[in-house]
Design goal:
With about 140 residues, this protein is mainly α. Helix content is about 80%, strand content about 0%. The chain contains three helices and no strands.
């Protein structure tokens, strides 16, 4: 039986694996499909895109929600009653967690891209001020 720490480590490695596979996918599209050349699509210095890890988490939560919902819905269609109401409520909250996870991943991606652009803007501004001082 695995300890809780081993389980958390395994889940974190799955998250990183999805993030690195997403990075490879984006680089492949840029280099091979679109022929734009290599551009590091990762966050900071690592070859990973966390939006794919968060997307995997959102997909898994949505899949668990649907798997739990189907028997409750089929029973409702047959009898017109919902005897497992707590399961129905849990399905709804799990689906909401998946949706929230997806949108938080999208916000993370947008904020990282904005920070990259802001850094480049500040770097160009400092370089321009330096050139003005030199008189070029």
């Amino acid at each position: 039986m695995q300890s809780k720490l081993q389980t958390i480590e395994k889940l974190f490695l799955y998250f990183l694996m999805a993030a690195i596979i997403g990075w490879c996918y984006e680089v492949f599209l840029e280099v091979v499909v679109y022929r734009w050349g290599f551009q590091n699509r990762g966050v900071l210095f690592g070859p990973y895109c966390p939006v794919y890890g968060v997307g995997m988490l959102a997909f898994l939560l949505a899949a668990v929600s649907v798997i739990l919902f189907v028997p409750v819905f089929l029973e409702y269609l047959n009898t017109g009653l919902v005897p497992r109401f707590p399961t129905l409520i849990a399905c709804g909250f799990i689906l909401l967690a998946g949706i929230q996870s997806f949108f938080s991943g999208m916000m993370l991606e947008v904020m990282a891209a904005k920070d990259r652009k802001d850094f480049e803007y500040r770097l160009n501004r400092v370089h321009g001020e330096h050139q003005e001082r030199k008189g070029l």
